[in-house]
Design a protein that fits this description.
Lyase, Ornithine Decarboxylase, Chain A, domain 1, TIM Barrel, 2 domains, 9-stranded mixed sheet, 8-stranded parallel barrel, 29% helix, 24% strand, binds pyridoxal-5'-phosphate
Amino acid sequence: MKLFGNLKVRENELYLGKFSMTELAEKFDTPLYIIDEDYFVERCEKYKEKFKSDKFESHIIYASKALLNLYIAKLVGKQDLHMDAVSGGELYTIIKAGFNPKKIYFHGNNKLIQELNFALDNEIGTIVIDNKKEYENLDKLIKEKGKKQRVLLRINPGIDAHTHEYIATSKNDSKFGLSIFDDGTISFIEEISKNQNFDFAGLHAHIGSQVFAEDSFFKEADRVIEYAKKLEERLGIKIEELNLGGGFGIYYTEEDSPFKLGKFLESYAENIKTSLEKNKLDVKIISIEPGRSLIANAGHTLYKACSVKETYSGKNYIFIDGGMTDNIRPALYGAKYEAAITNKMNDKDEVVYTLAGKCCESGDVIIKDIKLPKVDDEDLILVSSTGAYGYSMASNYNQIEKPAMIAVSDEAKLIVRRETYEDLIRNDIGDVLE
Ligand SMILES: Cc1ncc(COP(=O)(O)O)c(C=O)c1O
């Protein structure tokens, strides 16, 4: 298992900073989401340091869908990043954390009226319009409230990012945004830019997630910049901001070959500068929206091996105390992870196991066929790099409680309490038939 951030091996045992996994499990129980806080902060700093240019101001927008709770939102605020949200609930959480609403970008392909209302009432800095109907809804609300709203328009630049179908967002049949190949998009932009209720600031695009091809990002930037130039020429408007989205691929297993982040960000910024100069376009702000790339490798899940079962056909299962309810990604789109038995770090890998969860689904598997040292009941297993889209996609299927989350730095702090049985029925109305 690749050791990211502050993960270290000492005397056959896995540590995060000064805490052994055994200690963390004893104190906080399992399953447990563990955030390597210092490594997350280091990643934020790297983005700020490397994605810059003398040609534009850069906004690093943390894509909160990757992982969001009050503590994470506060941490992102402390790093002075911007943040995005795609639902009223995400907006609410971010605002409750005391994050500056002016630094929030509100995305989504189907923002509900109540969500738009909530965004307007809370003075969200930028709303990213997805489609005509949403624009009309927003226009009506803005008029009623007598406000003016800064907006971007989500466009689809038609780039195939070569990633999983479920996380590709910029093919021509994608549900997100409006195509740059559709003439209607230009007329629509003209309409928004002439509407006094709106401050039309520019464009947003996002080509997909877990993308490794640097070239796809460069192509996207070129296409968006060329389109912005066309808009300025055709409509006589000024584009203030281009938000190029996130999706920067990361390492989960040896099958992934991510680019060197710092080097990539420098050349990305340089490419954008060159493209702006080539197109004689002055854009004040260039934004990017990393989610996974900031938090995935800084988050891990610690499980307990409850039992090992060999099937009639000879397959070895390790039954862990969590599963698809705390990490749906393997079941949803075949995501792969690495893992280690945290109390046998130097032991020889000798048995091929499948790490299975406790849900009533055969597909409830976290890792299929991983070679590990021989596992005994009560061993601890760390599945690494689960920081993004694990907790945020967690469910209560089979009435299973969501795990606790801790942030580890100089101390190990509980940042999300473990759900209880009581939490599971808190919204149920039990006396309806009485
Ligand atoms: C609009 C938008 N921005 C940013 C992201 C973040 O993607 P990633 O976590 O892969 O960086 C997403 C992910 O779905 C997205 O939809």
